[in-house]
């Protein structure tokens, strides 16, 4: 089967590295055929701090996915995160130059290029320019102005930038694993592809992706991305709070969080208990109340949501969340997190499990796989736009034949 029938998502997170292989099936639907995951030890708050450890984890996840799919990974869409990510909205304006003032693809390309004519520090690079809406002669809300008539064309865009060194280190790690980077994709953009519905994005919705090292925010309205932000607090902070509060080793704190973690004490029975290993050689485990665990981690959940709430209000987007909030990322698995979020935001909150794919969905239908599944969906969308999807293979081969004839 031609290689462009396969697509790969590589989510390089603080706690876990996941590789997912998808096959483009009928009607361009992505069918998952391989899933691999490995513990991540070479990243801190989404940024590579140990190249060798990161490469080793990528290879482990890669090999597991390849073995399951029977396909060798050579290219992948790679997720990126970290506090170094900065984003802002920009605007471009041009005069329409085409015959009869008809807007052409060249005009659209020119106005988008003009929108990025902003001062970017030399140590940063643009990784996304996302059109939000076009304006033709003061008529706004236009998604695709191609073929329309007008004198002036404007565009509003969302620009995402990254520290150049962080992108380079990410590419280096992936390259050392023998994988070519198809495109670096912001985690929020990928996760939104897998967790948000069209109606939510049209009405207005906030997505909060709580990973191991960071909490990532994205706000959509009128079908477009208007705001992204990253807060350097995540699931690791819950783990550290448990380790300190219960006086247990950090690895045990992680296990306790995953098995017994609940951030709303009102959901628990007073009689529920758990066994907690002690710090120090020869010390016996203790039996403690699960209510105590909730009392330790509930303030951290409230802190994260208050930071998000303050950030959204500071930027003036609180009135954009008409559909409420969607929680995703590994930490979204914590019991009671939705209830705490609803109290803080005073909005409806739901958990964002990834959807929109077929195949081995039972392996990836939890929030911690939202970004990796979203990378497949994002990549498939990019391929469609470039004419590389399964349904368009005929036209692609026709183009190649035409090129050969001209040669």
Assign the CATH superfamily of the largest domain: ATPase, nucleotide binding domain
Number of domains: 3
What is the overall number of helices?
11
Radius of gyration: 23 Å
Short overview:
The chain has helices spanning 51-69, 105-115, 164-176, 187-195, 198-203, 235-246, 250-260, 290-314, 337-345, 370-386, 393-406; strands spanning 6-12, 16-24, 30-39, 43-44, 47-48, 75-80, 86-95, 124-136, 139-142, 152-163, 180-186, 205-210, 215-221, 224-231, 273-276, 286-289, 325-328, 349-351, 358-359.
Write the layout of secondary structure elements.
Elements: E1 6-12, E2 16-24, E3 30-39, E4 43-44, E5 47-48, H1 51-69, E6 75-80, E7 86-95, H2 105-115, E8 124-136, E9 139-142, E10 152-163, H3 164-176, E11 180-186, H4 187-195, H5 198-203, E12 205-210, E13 215-221, E14 224-231, H6 235-246, H7 250-260, E15 273-276, E16 286-289, H8 290-314, E17 325-328, H9 337-345, E18 349-351, E19 358-359, H10 370-386, H11 393-406
Helix pairs in contact: 1-3, 4-10, 6-7, 6-8, 8-9
Question: Can you walk me through this structure?
Answer:
The chain is about 35% helix and about 30% strand. The chain is built from eleven helices and 19 strands. The strands form five sheets. A six-stranded mixed sheet has the order 11-6-1-2-3-19, with helices on both faces. Strands 14-13-12-17-18 form a five-stranded mixed sheet, with helices on both faces. A four-stranded antiparallel sheet has the order 7-10-8-9. About 40% of the residues are buried. Residues about 390-405 have low confidence and may be disordered.
